[in-house]
Amino acid sequence: MAKDNLDIKEFHWLMDMLQTIDVGLIVLDKNFKVQVWNSFMENHSGIPPLSVKDKVLFDVFGDIPKEWFTQKAESVFLLKSRAFITWELRPYLFKFKNYRPITGTEEFMYQNVSISPLVSVDGSVSSICVIIYDVTDIASNKKALEKANVELESLSRTDRLTMLNNRGYWEECLQNEYSRLQRYDTTSSLVMFDIDHFKKVNDTYGHQAGDEVIRVVSKLLRDSLRKTDIAGRYGGEEFGIILGHTSSENAFIYCERLRKAIEDTTVVHDGIEIKFTISLGICEASKKLEDYKQWLEKTDQALYQCKESGRNKTMIYDLSTL
Ligand SMILES: Nc1nc2c(ncn2[C@@H]2O[C@H](COP(=O)(O)OP(=O)(O)OP(=O)(O)O)[C@@H](O)[C@H]2O)c(=O)[nH]1
Fold first, then answer.
1. Which residues cross the membrane (predicted)?
2. What range defines the domain where residue 38 resides?
3. Which atom of ligand 1 is closest in space to residue 207's alpha carbon?
4. ipTM surpassing 0.90
């Protein structure tokens, strides 16, 4: 008798604990009918235990993907081993609102879920226990960290003045493009261009005006690009463009369009109108080039020829001289 009293007492304690623990606890039978529904579940769903008792889970929560959850649960019934669902795999099983003060920006509660078999004395599994862990804090922190890393990576690749790729990252892209061209039977053209007499712009109108000219050129450049083109700021007033799948003839058409657009532009800084031009060199990729550095060098040579022969023009490197 004393033993029985103890058992009942322990049972009450267990029930108390079950109600007060800060995780969701649900017991489902083989037909997915709810047998146990603790306070956590009641508080977050607003549905009291009596309203869900003996109801099929999917009838009460229509947005739980039935087929997917059934498959998970069936394996627990069959193999008598636990199954886990992480928030990374599926953010939640029950769409509960998130009320946490620190992670208040999250719209819903992220959940980790474990499904355990409840084995009877005869060894059979006729019910499963689903435990819902609120992992909103963890998920929110991880997502914030991932976002910060993406932003950091983008910052480390971007030139602050022009918002173009910086030299380091652009050269990496050029190297990749060169390697890609070794493998595939296609071509690309490299363009290097430079603002003419830029030193004079700085000396005449000041460094701020010079910066504004660089910014305007970069915007015109960005607006002229296709999705597959990659532009970068190579140096002070020197820029590089990788034109994917483009012959030197087509690159020439592109360059002349950009050159004319810049020639037709006027930058107004502190009420003063500033006009400027650019010179562009082109070199089409070729098997004759030893590496990406030589590709760059030859393109620069074409740009240098423009500078030598009067500026404000586009020239193509003659690959037959290689
Ligand atoms: N305002 C500004 N000037 C820069 C920046 N980076 C480099 N420069 C200036 O750009 C000028 C480049 O001058 P040079 O290399 O002599 O070339 P250039 O005057 O354009 O002459 P050509 O290229 O031969 O037509 C130098 O005066 C640099 O100080 C920058 O970010 N902002």
1. none
2. 2-143
3. 1
4. yes
Domain assignment of residue 120, yes or no? yes
CA nearest ligand 1 atom 6, residue: 236
Q: Each residue's pLDDT tens digit in the chain (322 positions)?
A: 455 666 777 777 888 888 888 999 999 999 999 999 999 999 999 999 999 999 999 999 999 999 999 999 999 999 999 999 999 999 999 999 887 666 557 889 999 999 999 998 888 999 999 999 999 999 999 999 999 999 999 999 999 999 999 999 999 999 999 999 988 888 999 999 999 999 999 999 999 999 999 999 999 999 999 999 999 999 999 999 999 999 999 999 999 999 999 999 999 999 999 999 999 999 999 989 999 999 999 999 999 999 999 999 999 999 998 8
The answer to whether residues 170 and 116 belong to one domain is no
Residue bearing the CA closest to ligand 1, atom 7: 236
| 115 and 195 part of one domain | no
Q: Strand 189-195 and strand 230-233: pairing?
A: unpaired
Answering whether pTM is above 0.80, one says no
Instruction: Enter the tokens of residue 34.
Output: 């709810």
213 CB less than 6 Å from ligand 1?
no
